[in-house]
Every structure is written in C-alpha cells, then in structure tokens.
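Section 5: illustrative case.
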C-alpha cells in the first residue's frame, strides 16, 4: 500500500459508509488479505465496523465477507487478544443467529469464523455455549459430512475443554461426536478432544460408553501419529478409559503396550509416570503382565539410567501381583536385577533393591534371588549411604533369614547393626498389627455402629 495505515483505515471507513455492496466487499476482502501485516491498533478499530456489518447488513455477501475478515483477524496479534476482542464486540451471537438460517458458502464461512474464535479465544467458548452454540453444533453434526463436519468437530473439541460442556455433552448425545473428533481434524483439535475424553473417562459409567463408541482405537491411532505432547495427552486419556475391567485385555491386544514402552524410554517424566500407572493397571491380566515384563527386562539392559530406574520401579509394583505363574522370575529379570544392585546410578540401585525386597516375600523368587547371588550383595548394601537402599536390603534379608533353607548363609547379616534394627522394627510392627487384629475381633458389630468415638 502506497498510503499510510491511518489513511488506509480512513478510506476503509468511507467505503463502508458509502453503502455500495460491491465496494464494501472489495474493501473487506482487501483488509482480510492485509490482516497479517496490519498493525494491531488498526485491526482493533476495524472489529466493531465488521461486527456491525455482520449483524446489520441486508446483503449476505457483505455479511460473508465480514465473517471471513473477522476470521482472519482472530488469528493475528499476540496470544488470543484479537479473538477475545471480536467476542467482546458481540460477533459470536450474531454468527450463531445467522448460522441457523444460512446455507452453502455463507454457512461454511460462518462456521470457519466461529472455529477460529473459539480456537484462539478461550473466553469465546463460554460466550458460544451460553448463547446455545453447543446445541446448534451438535445438531448440525448430525447432518453434515466432509470438510464441514471437520470444522464442526473442531469447534466441539474446543468447547469440550470447558467442564460445564463435558457435564452436559452426554445428555445432548454429543459424546459420539467428541470421540470422532479424536480421529478427524487438525492435530491440535484432536489433542483437545483426547484431553476431554480422558476427563470424561474418569467416571466409570462414561468410561464404558466411550469404549463402546470406539474411543480406545481412536486414541491409539492418535498416540501413534501425534508429536511428543500429543502422545502424552493421548496416552493419559487411553490409560484412563482402559482401567475398566472389560477393557484391559482388548486394550493390550490393540497394540497399546509398545506405545507406553516408548513413553517409558522417553525423556519426559510425566510420560514415564503415565506409563507406570497404565502398566500397573494392565498387569492385572496375567498375559499382559508377561508382555510388559519382557519389555521392562529389555530396558533394564540398556544404557539409559532414567529409563532403567523407571522400569525397576514398575517391576517393584508388579512384583506384588499374585498370578498363577511368577512372570518376573520366568522373564529372566532376577539375575539382571541382582546385577543392577551394583549399578553406578543410586536411583537405579534404590528402585532395584525395592523390587528385590518385594520379590523376597515369595519362596520361589527368593530361591531364584539366592541362586543369582543376591544375599552377599544385599549384605554389602547394609552399609550404603542411602537410607532407602539400606532399608530395602534389610527387608529382603529378613525374608531370607526366615527361610529355613537360607539361614545358613545369613550369619554375616545378623552381625550388622542396621539389619538388627530393621528386624526389631519389623517385630514391633507385626506385634502392633496382631494387637489391632485381636482388638477388632473382640469388638461386636453393635460397638462399631454405636460407639460415638467410631463415628
């Protein structure tokens, strides 16, 4: 433009005031094309003009051009400032009103304008919902396909970030559309939909419905295709809905376990936490526990100390599970765990020692630990500077000391002070537990129900 932005704005005002539709449309389209280079203060002054044209013009062509220009302006500026400004001037209720009586290209440009406003302006989502926008979008989703449906799904995924929307979306029969939004649309929209699905899946009743609607397979697909951030969101949502007892086996059969192994090997601590939580749920099924342990054994033999510590931590949790077979012993993990007791990383040693302490409660695992040479190493660890490591080692050795077949090689441990202290502490804990059990057995049900101190 050869003139200054101020002069250009004055010219824009004159053309709009002229009332000539053809000139208005050309000026508005020109503004839309220049919106990415126009100063923010100029764009700010055009918003009320465009909003007025959107709501008051008798020409659908002018209204369509205005909606298109507002869409372009919503993308500009720092953060969501321009999008929020458009919402504050009342463009959203106007667009919703026009949307219900529009068709063709005019309808499409209105939907795209609303999509931009709720995507870039968080407060606009509330405005749209309070003006009946959620009901309108869900109703339209039942009638449209193709690109139009994708735009509507992206609006729905943005609205579903609101807790109020998630509360009513089931009653409006919009849950199936939210699940579809996990699969269709831009990656940012799909990620929003996955987040909303995860939030809804916390409720047991909704969890089963989500699975029946195919959310599991769509989240797995998003997990595979997404970037690092999207994988975390999809992985978390997938873990939430998979915790339903009927989903555990099909969840693993759909290929989810290797995806969480990928998170475990990654560098994001949140991803590792998600993987650990999901594995602990999946391992309830014995076949899943076997598959998970095989992957964990592979990680334990790699060079990533953080991943090894995470894998050992999961084995620590899984070692308390009671299945028909000892999946940890059969996986070959025990000799590797014993070897890692001397690892250079203190975190790895602590997690491994915890897993070994838990394994030592099983007679079969205890025998495998002894065969792998665990007892001398555990005795050496009684003098380690780490308190957690010393306590885990002492806990494991106490289990060995109570095993008649292992007492012969435990004489050295009995002379270590920390081991004696741990033994005394365990005796006190067991004595306290037995006293509590006896006391509860002596109390009648009437006492439990009527004693004011128990309320």
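Designed sequence:
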């Amino acid at each position: 433009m050869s003139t200054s932005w101020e002069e250009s704005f004055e010219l824009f005002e004159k053309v709009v005031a002229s009332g000539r539709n053809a000139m208005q449309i050309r000026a508005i389209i020109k503004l839309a094309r220049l919106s990415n280079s126009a100063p923010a203060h100029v764009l700010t002054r055009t918003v009320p003009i465009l909003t007025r044209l959107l709501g008051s013009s008798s020409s659908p062509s002018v209204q369509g051009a205005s909606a298109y220009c507002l869409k372009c302006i919503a993308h500009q500026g720092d953060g969501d400032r321009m999008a929020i400004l458009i919402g504050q001037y009342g463009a959203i209720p106007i667009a919703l009103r026009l949307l219900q009586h529009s068709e063709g290209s005019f309808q499409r440009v209105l939907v795209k304008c609303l999509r931009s406003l709720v995507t870039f302006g968080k407060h606009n989502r509330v405005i749209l919902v309070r003006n009946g926008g959620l009901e309108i979008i869900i109703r339209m989703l039942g009638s449209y396909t193709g690109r139009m449906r994708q735009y509507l799904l992206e609006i729905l995924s943005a609205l579903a970030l609101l807790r109020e929307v998630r509360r009513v979306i089931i009653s409006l029969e919009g849950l199936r559309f939210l699940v579809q939004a996990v699969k269709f649309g831009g990656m940012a929209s799909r990620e929003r939909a996955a987040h909303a699905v995860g939030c809804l899946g916390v409720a047991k009743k909704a969890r089963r419905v989500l699975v029946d609607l195919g959310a599991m397979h769509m989240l797995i697909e998003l997990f595979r295709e997404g970037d690092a951030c999207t994988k975390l969101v999809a992985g978390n949502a997938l873990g939430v809905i998979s915790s339903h007892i009927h989903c555990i086996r099909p969840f693993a059969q759909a290929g989810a376990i290797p995806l969480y192994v990928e998170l475990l090997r990654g560098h994001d601590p949140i991803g590792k936490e998600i993987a650990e939580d999901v594995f602990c749920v999946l391992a309830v099924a014995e076949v899943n526990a076997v598959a998970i342990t095989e992957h964990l054994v592979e990680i334990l033999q790699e060079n990533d100390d953080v991943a090894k510590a995470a894998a050992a931590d999961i084995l620590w949790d899984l070692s308390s599970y009671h299945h028909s077979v000892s999946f940890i012993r059969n996986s070959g993990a025990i000799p590797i765990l014993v070897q890692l007791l001397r690892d250079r990383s203190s975190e790895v040693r602590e997690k491994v020692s915890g897993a070994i302490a838990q394994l030592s409660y099983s007679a079969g695992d205890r025998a495998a630990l002894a065969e792998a040479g665990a007892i001398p190493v555990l005795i050496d660890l009684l003098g380690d500077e780490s308190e957690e490591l010393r306590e885990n080692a002492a806990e494991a050795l106490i289990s060995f000391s109570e095993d008649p077949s292992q007492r012969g090689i435990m004489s050295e441990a009995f002379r270590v002070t920390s081991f004696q202290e741990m033994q005394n502490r365990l005796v006190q804990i067991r004595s306290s537990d037995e006293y509590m059990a006896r006391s509860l057995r002596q109390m009648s049900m009437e006492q439990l129900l009527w004693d004011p101190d128990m309320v």
